[in-house]
């Protein structure tokens, strides 16, 4: 093991094991991540909203660099609010941003005890649903397309033609699947990571223990490796 890797490993272990749960380990994007939050990245841990929102913010930050698609990410609470109310209830969420100026929009979706990801590609006019348990999300895609139609009309005064859009729940043969009951949040983060670089999704469930540790370092240092 090279010294740099050893230093990273000891830092990751310390983040998990030493100190109090309420210790603040990272602060950025108007989010505060405590040791208790970081510990959800331990093996078999269920990732919480703070970890997923922080990681999505890191992806958005990276997308500002040259050579990356322009990425916007909604907060983890966005979809549950939209699906239980209407566009009107979430209208103010984008008051300072035109989401249509981006290439890719990431929508993390929390289904009671399971995380999934919805991806809007404005270049291709596609809405894809990625679920590491292989469930279909056709109704989720439709809800978000309806949101896009209303958002476009409200913010840009442009009618979005729904028939031009392709909605697709990705099948188990298209994307990797989790082999336990706890890795869905990590899958969501890594689906988003690969998509926000326009890269094919080539990881598997075997990579999860490594991804968990890597994410600890990235969140603490506010920097993607």
TrEMBL record:
Q: What keywords appear on the UniProt entry?
A: Hydrolase, Protease, Thiol protease
Question: GO MF terms on file?
Answer: deSUMOylase activity
The biological processes this protein is annotated with in GO are: protein desumoylation; proteolysis; regulation of macromolecule metabolic process; regulation of primary metabolic process
Q: Which Pfam families match?
A: Peptidase_C48 (PF02902)
- Specify the Ubiquitin-like protease family profile domain's residue ranges: 31-195
Which InterPro entries has this protein been placed in?
Papain-like_cys_pep_sf (IPR038765), Peptidase_C48_C (IPR003653)
Recorded hits in PROSITE patterns, A to Z, give: ULP_PROTEASE
Protein name (Swiss-Prot/TrEMBL): SENP2 protease
Q: Which organism is it from?
A: Toxostoma redivivum (California thrasher)
């Amino acid at each position: 093991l090279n010294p740099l890797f050893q230093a990273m490993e000891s830092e990751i272990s310390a983040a998990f094991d030493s100190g109090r749960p309420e210790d603040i380990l990272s602060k950025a994007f108007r989010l505060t991540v405590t040791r208790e939050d970081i510990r959800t990245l331990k093996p078999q841990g269920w990732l919480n909203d703070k970890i997923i929102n922080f990681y999505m913010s890191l992806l958005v930050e990276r997308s500002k660099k040259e050579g990356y698609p322009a990425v916007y990410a909604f907060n983890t609470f966005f979809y549950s609010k939209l699906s239980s109310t209407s566009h009107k209830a979430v209208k103010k969420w984008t008051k300072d941003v035109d989401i249509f100026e981006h290439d890719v929009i990431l929508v993390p979706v929390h289904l009671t005890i399971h995380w999934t990801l919805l991806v809007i590609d404005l270049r291709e006019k596609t809405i894809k649903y990625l679920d590491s348990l292989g469930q279909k999300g056709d109704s989720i895609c439709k809800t978000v397309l309806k949101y896009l139609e209303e958002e476009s009309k409200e913010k840009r005064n442009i009618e979005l033609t729904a028939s031009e859009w392709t909605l697709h729940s990705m099948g188990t043969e298209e994307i990797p699947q989790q082999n336990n009951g706890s890795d869905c949040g990590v899958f969501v983060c890594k689906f988003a990571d690969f998509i926000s670089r326009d890269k094919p999704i080539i990881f598997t469930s075997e990579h999860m223990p490594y991804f968990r540790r890597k994410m600890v370092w990235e969140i603490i240092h506010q920097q993607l490796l």
